[in-house]
User: Fold these one by one.
Assistant:
Number 1:
Amino acid sequence: MKIKSSILSILMAAAAFSGCQNLTEDPKANLTPGTYFKTQSDLDGAVAAIYIQFARDGAWGFTNRSTSYFGSDDFTTDPGLNKEDFRLFDRLSGGSGNGSMVAQWQGPWQGIYQANNVIANYAKVNSTDEQKNQSAGQAYFLRALGYYYLVRTFGPVPVILTPIDVDDRPDRDPIEKVYEAIIADLQKAKEMLPVKFDNAPGKADQMAARSLLADVYLTMSGWPLNQTSNYAQAAAEADAVIKSGQFNLSTPYAQVFTTNNGPESIFGLQYNVNGGLPLRSAGSSCVPLDEVAANGSSGWDDYYPEINFYKKAPKCKRTDDTFYTTLKLRQPDGKTFKLVPWDSPETHARHPYYKKFRAGLNGDGVSETETTINSINPSTNKVYDIIRYPLVLLAYAEASAMSGGGPTAASYAAINEVRKRAGLPNLTAGLSATAFRDSVVYERAYEFAGEFGVRWFDIVRLQLLPKIVAERSSEENPIPANVNFAQKYLAPIPVNEMARNPKWLQNDGY
């Protein structure tokens, strides 16, 4: 595992972020963290580099960021084509040599390495304490975010909180220790960050830290730690975000996915096609291969929902805005399109698709009308919202119910706020704590359908694989009969990392 960050990569990433920095004047090979971190501008550039490490193609920028999450029921992929890496995990048969899965490992680590450099050096910068603390607070938040995805995906990982030598080979630390580091970082972020950054979309603030903490505590209440005392902590952090009054669900559901930085966006990665940083998990990636636009561009068929996941969706406006169920097939004249249902024999996959990810930002993904497709583009300027306000509302609803022996009026108010925007009636009153929790988990499944990892991590923390596999349509990619579900909640460590760290033991089942 190469874990010594290059200051040159910080400079290059900062240049990409700003679009105007000149890197040709001085010999960059002579730069070290000790000589680079001098001004607030240096520090700002280094923090910008962390965001870029998380946003690029090898991290959240492309569909391979979710490779091992294809075991979820809101993700499946083509039975053929060049989708083998996704298909193997869809069949719960992925292995450590899977090439696409490498992005899930390397993306967070690259951000962590950059964050470690910032945290180790920010104090020496010639700037005000307030400015330095704001920069360091963002680094703490982003480091916690990286570790949070690593520990939930791969289980035990090394806790590396300082820059270390490229030849070091640290041990994998226990899951509990990783979570201790995540919580410590987020608590520091809460202390150092302002409640809100004005006119600075994309910067993590105190509300982002509290929102992530709520999700972390909720996850710790389930498998593998099963620390149910953390439900109360999750409820408290989520409640603080709710009571801040900063966020709301006033944006119609469909528009959330065609506009940027709306009133429910708590933390989102920013993308810019012209700046060389596109989001490629919208647009072509989720469009059927069968669809060919008037200009000849076509869909990639990377991901879509399982049939029964779609069929079990609630009947509401949100469902209509989530799923794409009528395909447009270009006719021989190249100008007209035939509309066919998703299960038509004229389609090769016979699956519904995702509507909410098609357009990108106001149509920079798929440009279409109700009956025609003008163009299908793989690169969009759409913000990827890692934390949307409904995540906080539903975390509060579940955690408050499970920590207090049953749902309160506030628990119901939180889930009903999400349901109201979806076009659903209020949830049935008088549910037990467990029944209410199950209702919240169901709500999360469809509020966040197809959003990287949200559904999968609920399946993991509640150990739902036997249930969702039992409900899986026979038309999906087949799962081998001898799969041990208990060994599939964690992904394998990539084979190259195992080779670099010969003392590590691979996760069970791989």
Number 2:
Amino acid sequence: MLILDKEVSKIVFDPEGELADTDKSNNVFPKEESKTKLDEFKEKGE
């Protein structure tokens, strides 16, 4: 548990990518919406 004077706006776990992690999408709080490669492909086709 953390006791802080301010509200936490963002937490990034392993920002340098030094740990073996197959799913880096869950290393940020609050969760950031990210586009999939399929979404990017669809946008290029428009």
Number 3:
Amino acid sequence: MGNYSSEITKEITVFAVMIVLLIMVMPTVSAQENSVTSLDISIQKYEPFPAEIGQYVDVWVKVENFRSGQSDDVTIKIVPEYPLSLDSEKNAENNIGILSPDSASVQEFRLYVDENAKPGTASFDVYYRGTDNSPWIKDTFKIKVGSTTFDSKGTLELTETTSTPNMFSPGDKGTISFKLTNTASENTINIDGEDYDTNARIQSASLTGADSIKVTSGVQEAGIVGPGNSVTLTFNVEVPEDVQEGTYYLDLAIIGNSYSYNTIWRVPVTIDSSSLKMIPSKSMILTNSEGKIQFDIANLHQNTISSVSVRPIAEGIKFSPAEYFIGSMKPDELFTIEFSAVAEEEIELTPLTLEAEYRNGFNDHTTSADVGELEIVEEKTDTKAGSSTIAFVLLIVAAAGIFIYKKRKQD
């Protein structure tokens, strides 16, 4: 009996150890196999902003696979809460299918904002899973609900556009700023016997463009602009290296007091690819392996550039100064610069290149120009002329000696 009980005890112990090991292993295996854990959900955008009471709002949901494992059957569904509702229940769920590692999918849903809703925020849940057998994971998101119609009657005008740099070059980064002014001169205005304030509201402002100019700033909210006051909106932009010079247009879109106050301005942006022109201003000849050379440096860009410096490069030649710093140059401004040059090798001709660096706004640029060949000539001393000169000097000395001798003899 004792042996039998002992055997049972051993079996129970082994079974218990197996259960514990299984429990320890299962979460790890589940985490590896359950691909829903590799998904991330976010709201990319919604329009209009804010969502209008009594109107539809389009919501774009982004699902991303951020791990190395593949999600074989991704599905997402949206469950709104009052005051939001789906335009149709059949549109609540979207099956994406396979979502490879480091890839994403954007799904669009349409929601309705109840006409009795109050301004504020509204919530909705997004459920998602990576396979048909995976459990649903839920995230909750909020959107702003309000009205895009106000009783204010202020009118905005685009009164000034500035950029840094003033003129963009290919490859530049910078900013474009817009000054918007409320043109109202009084605090109130009476229309059909009813008084309205003259504030101007900027509910949202966005800048968009073509591939030629990339806008890296998002939507901005400026709020209320009082009568006669102004506000400046600034957007970051980037110009690709391969863009062609010319004039391009960006769209500045403003959502104002109401739809009747919404405005889109077409804003021109000019790209100028010209830079510095560098040419010799006198012959490039070194006599007896040394001499001075001069160059004219002209700014052909349509705005002021800064930190201009020029460096001559020629094999076997030493220049002084090694680099000439000019500083700022206005459009069409010209500088004449001079270098001393000494040939350190026995050469007759050597190509000469001028390399220039400058800044357009906060952007560094480099340009170079092959300006021709530097010539080294040797001039021999005229021995006949030298001998004549010596003889003439000796003759004068002899004459002076004779004169002094006779003078002393007379005395």
